[in-house]
Specification:
Helices cover 50% and strands 11% of the residues. It is of the alpha+beta class. It has four domains: 163 residues, Glutaredoxin; 188 residues, no CATH class; 93 residues; 79 residues, no CATH class.
């Protein structure tokens, strides 16, 4: 029987298209769906997920492809599917509801709400049929349908209370900022740290690279050795574990166990970008080759598998292939022997491969005979031998059916990757990385800024969805890093313009802080402070604005950075280790900073030398004969600086500058002090 497509067939999102042939009468998030619900007096069933989400696939196969479930949904509800990566603002609103109701959240996110978008029920994954201690989707839907018919007023009353709570949540109260919050974040992380395997939880374990970037800075400023030890233990154990793809490179989403061994296999662009920054900065600080190698391998993976012809970066790769999670990435011992022949024994010992396997089938808990490759220690075999083994495994694996690639391109996640590539370019002196960062940046500038406003998504030649706070914040972060890598003042100018636009569009003048989005189709405007898998748009904005203040002397940037920190001060004080990107921004306010201006015609070599070291409390400006006029208009305190034939280095603090010098090492030593 040929399946008929539903309305999702006209969408661009790979996640929505995965559901386009479900018997459920899905709508995308649109006014038509809400009008239908009002007209027919039906509650709305809202399901939010993303294309590489394993449990989203499970729920689709169990329930949304099922005729019985579809019949109930189509009869009693109006059903809406949302890709959280397309509309993170919609997801943020209703994830907050799920956290309120249940104390936790996740995807797929299941919301039931009134026709005017007010939620009265929230959960995550539901099996089709009820189990002990867990209601099934069919029973849930029938219970809600009965309640809607018999006691709708109670559900509406409940939903009104939820909306009141959400609106109250957005009213931030300004709080004084103290250096104690920074120390509190360190001690919180130290208390949560797993001394055996690294990371900051038992299981599951997420990378949270911004925690590591905070600890690197904490070590830099305080010389507290435990801070650096926590970073190093975590980075090394992740690199050894199965969360790392030892054959094709790049990191999987998270580890299901404490040891970083058995991952959920999806690969997200934002994880690659943030981990690239953490490994790069750790190399800068320690000069340990394993961190540099890991950073370079992450880049190799992204450039090979996640880069579009336009130079933008794709969003994700799925965990599943051929209907099985991890099938693409796992190995039987027979496959290893067949592929590697005389080198098989070396690989079996090196990657801890077992006859019975180490990969458990989730449903039964039984071993599958398949292995997740992992290391117990750094390899002590010759590099050529290791690379030969890896290359043969890679070539064999490439012939397998690949997981689905989510090929939409998001401005916010591309901004993170641009920042990561620019950091790596600076640290390793690699101009190829700069070229890739510039290509993505220039594509966004040319195609995704329309009438001065940034857009969120590019796919199949189309730009869609107005940019949200994260798009502005993360892309500006990338622009600042790219400016410091290249000295090209146009990137600085775009960072300034987009930061001003984000203040105009999203800043809450009454309560402080930035809204994630102010789209008209939202029931409340979400405002996020919590750093989750990636930092919040508010924390990155506070960081960017302070750096731009140091670069330009524009007091408005200082004011908005400080007020944003104050707006979330109570939250930061209460849970400092869950706001580590905010703490990084707070360090810029509390610890000494330096403005470095390289002036002259021969500035490139000076910039390269200055960029190699881990000096997180500085900003760098380049003034040369070509950009002199524009730079002076953007950073007026540079007007009196000479532009010699060779170079000068001006070291400034609070826009008061020392006499120019030519000794780079002397300048770096002054910055460190």
């Amino acid at each position: 029987m040929n399946k008929k497509p539903n309305r999702l067939i006209n969408e661009k999102s790979p996640y929505l298209l995965q559901h386009a042939y479900n018997p459920v009468d899905w709508y995308p998030w649109c006014e038509e769906a809400f009008e239908k619900a009002k007209k027919e007096d039906k509650p709305i069933f809202l399901s939010i997920g993303y294309s590489s989400c394993h449990w989203c696939h499970v729920m689709e196969k169990e329930s949304f492809e099922d005729e019985e479930v579809a019949e109930i949904l189509n009869q009693y509800f109006v059903s809406i599917k949302v890709d959280r990566e397309e509309r993170p603002d919609v997801d943020a609103v209703y994830m907050n509801v799920c956290m309120l109701f249940n104390g936790n959240g996740g995807w797929p996110l299941t919301i039931i709400m009134t026709p005017d978008k007010k939620p009265f029920f929230a959960g995550t994954y539901f099996p089709k049929h009820s189990r002990p201690g867990r209601i099934g989707l069919i029973d849930l839907l029938l219970t809600v349908a009965k309640k809607w018919k018999e006691d709708k007023e109670d559900l509406i009353s409940r939903s009104e209370k939820v909306i009141e709570y959400l609106k109250e949540e957005n009213k931030t109260t300004f709080s004084d900022l103290k250096i104690d919050y920074i120390h509190g974040g360190y001690y919180d992380l130290k208390g949560r740290f797993d001394n055996t395997y690294g990371g900051f939880s038992n299981k599951p374990k997420f990378p949270t690279p911004h925690n590591l970037m905070f600890l690197l800075r904490y070590y830099y400023h305080t010389k507290e050795k435990d801070a650096l030890d926590m970073v190093e233990k975590t980075l090394l154990n992740m690199r050894l574990g199965g969360i790392y793809d030892h054959v094709g490179f790049g990191f999987h989403r998270y580890s299901t166990d404490r040891q970083w061994l058995l991952p959920h296999f999806e690969k997200m662009l934002y994880d690659q970008a943030m981990l690239l920054m953490a490994y790069t900065e750790s190399y800068q600080l320690t000069q340990k080759d394993i961190y540099k190698q890991t950073a370079q391998e992450i880049i190799q993976y992204v450039l090979r598998d996640m880069t579009s012809p336009e130079g933008m970066f794709y969003s994700a790769e799925d965990a599943d292939s051929e209907g099985e999670e991890g099938k693409f990435y796992t190995w039987t011992i027979q496959e290893i022997k067949e592929v590697l022949k005389e080198d098989a024994d070396v690989a079996i010992e090196l990657f801890n491969i077992k006859e019975e396997g180490n990969f458990l089938e989730e449903a039964t808990g039984h071993l599958t005979g398949r292995n997740v490759l992992h290391l117990k220690k750094l390899p002590d075999i010759p590099m050529e031998k290791l690379e030969s083994i890896r290359q043969r495994l890679f070539e064999y694996r490439e012939k397998r059916i690949h997981p689905l690639k989510d090929d939409k391109m998001l401005t916010d996640w591309n901004g993170l990757m641009i920042a990561g590539l620019s950091k790596a370019a600076k640290s390793f002196g690699n101009e190829e990385y700069t070229k890739y960062a510039e290509k993505a940046t220039n594509f966004i500038i040319k195609n995704m800024i329309i009438n001065g406003k940034l857009y969120h998504l590019y796919k199949d030649g189309q730009v869609k969805i107005k940019g949200m706070l994260d798009d502005y914040a993360f892309f500006v972060w990338g622009l600042i890093e790219l400016y410091e890598a290249t000295g090209k003042v146009d990137y600085l100018q775009h960072a300034i313009n987009l930061s001003k636009k984000s203040i105009e569009l999203f800043y809450d003048e009454e309560n402080g802080g930035f809204y994630l989005s102010k789209m008209d189709d939202l029931i409340v405007k979400p405002k996020e402070s919590f750093d989750g898998a990636i930092p919040s748009g508010n924390s990155v904005s506070a960081y960017n604005l302070y750096k731009l203040y140091l670069m330009t002397g524009d007091e408005e940037f200082y004011k908005k950075s400080y007020e944003t920190l104050k707006a979330f001060g109570e939250e930061i004080k209460r849970l400092p280790s869950y706001h580590t990107m905010f703490l990084i921004a707070l360090m810029m306010h509390f610890f000494p900073t330096a403005e470095v201006v390289i002036s002259g015609s021969k500035w490139q070599e000076v910039l390269k030398h200055l960029n190699k070291d881990f000096l997180p409390n500085k900003v760098v400006l380049v003034k040369n004969p070509e950009n002199r006029q524009l730079l002076e208009s953007l950073a007026p305190y540079t007007k009196e600086m000479d532009v010699p034939e060779d170079f000068y280095i001006y070291l400034c603090k609070n826009f008061t500058c020392n006499l120019p010098v030519k000794d780079i090492e002397y300048v770096k030593e002054l910055i460190r002090k």
